[in-house]
Amino acid sequence: MRLNIALAACALCVYGCAQQSTKAEERTPETQAFIEWASEHAVALKSLGTSATAADLEPLRETLGSARLVGLGESRHDTREQLLLKGRLVRHLIQDLGFRALILEESVPHAQSLDRYVISGEGDLRQLMNNLAGWYLWDTEEMLELVHWIRRFNQDREPGRKVRIFGVDITAPAPGVREVINALESAGVEIGLDEPALGLDLQRGDFWPSTWERYGALSDERRRELAANYEELIELVKENRLQLIASSSTKEYERTLMLATIGKIGNQFFSSGDRESGGAVREYGMAQATLNILDREIPDEKAILWAHNLHVAKSSFRMPGLLEGQLNPMGVELSAELGDTYITIGGTFGTGSYPPDLPPGERVFEPVSEDVMDGALALVGAPLFLLDLGGVDQNPTARRWLHQEREWKAQDSNALLVPIESFDLVYFVEEISRSQPSPLALARLQSLGQQH
User: What's the predicted TM-score (pTM) here?
Assistant: First the structure.
């Protein structure tokens, strides 16, 4: 496989190695060795288009095909090119490698509407995308096309072989908690807990930073009361298991228990007093939701986990100035549970710009140092490629570079992580532009800009 990757990328080395040579004498031996190794092993991609064949991805079949779960990251949520590249990888994993679920960094209960759509065609997809808790991330033309593709893929397939869509985020749990209340009431269970008792009056609007602010004004006594009420809710679900199953099914009971648990974790997230503790709660909750999907929803199938780099990574990271200390992402828990069957792909880019028409205004992304992961990959000399890090052990000097903590673009900040401990593969796009919001999302984003 390593030989195939090198042959597939031979054209890269001709251009990449030539461009490196001008400043090679100024680099550390580790940096130079890594750039040379990456130039030799990068798998060039011909296109981001939806009509592209999978031929250029074939060298990665062995690595990706062995996975139970592929964590598919991105350095920014809002770049068109990263969304399109990830879309290509999703289509390849589904169509050519037999993956049967797409798990999104989206609210657990909100993602149900997308699952129903790709399974049965129920609903207006544009409206569904705009009603997601993370509509400002997902309601784009790039994501719309991918979900449409999954629906088309499913149309002629047997019910048990259709691709599913799930959410794992715990930051907008209110609709799921309401489902739990309704399920208990439908089963004839007296619960004694209304929406305010579970903090649902604080969780209005689905935009979690606003909910975080409302929780911030609560007294410690009120926070303890909410926590106790969620414990009571979960116990009610467990104690009335037989009634719930009789009124629906075992599968629905398990879903009800999961939604109650997500509600509890969401309440813990909102009740946490700082970024570090809140982030730890969120990562734990998303990991548990992912494992629940693998164990109960798709026990015999392979899945794709679509989220930010810093969620899917297999090792801890630091963000000096934003977070104190280190944070373990959900990928650490997933790696501990799934072992070598959890494969991670991190994303980077070189340069680019966004127009000024949407908040926060015009953006320009300049080149960065070659000591930074994004900057080193920019010197490979190809506009679009994937790099399997697995073969670097044969090059001890390049391996040392990958085993050192490196800066990595992370939304509007920078993270510090050890690349080879965090990701099995990385992808790179030379130049980025902003993703294309749908007309509904564009109107909402412009409205938000006018409010500020």
Answer: 0.92
What is the Cα–Cα distance from 202 to 172, expressed in whole angstroms?
11
User: Which residue matches tokens 């999703």?
Assistant: 90
What span, in angstroms and rounded, lies between the C-alpha atoms of 142 and 75? 17
Closest CA to 349 of 3, 48, 27: 48
Report residue 232 as tokens.
């009571």
**C-alpha pair distances (Å), 42 with each of 13, 84, 131, 285, 395:** 9, 19, 39, 35, 15
Tens of pLDDT, residue by residue over 327-379, are 999 999 999 999 999 999 999 999 999 999 888 889 999 999 999 999 999 99
Question: Per DSSP, what are the bridge partners of residue 98?
Answer: none
End-to-end Cα distance, the chain? 53
Q: Quick one: average pLDDT of 139-148?
A: 97
Which contiguous run of DSSP H or E holds residue 4?
A: helix 2-8
Helices (H), 131-240: 135-138, 141-154, 174-186, 208-216, 220-239
> Tokens 């964590």, residue?
71
Angle at 103 between CA 338 and CA 101, to 5 degrees: 85
Tokens in use for 231?
């414990």
298 CB neighbour count, 10 Å cutoff? 17
Strand runs labelled E in 251-341: 302-306, 317-318, 326-327
Q: What is the mean pLDDT of residues 181-198?
A: 96
Question: 237 pairs with which residues across the strands?
Answer: none
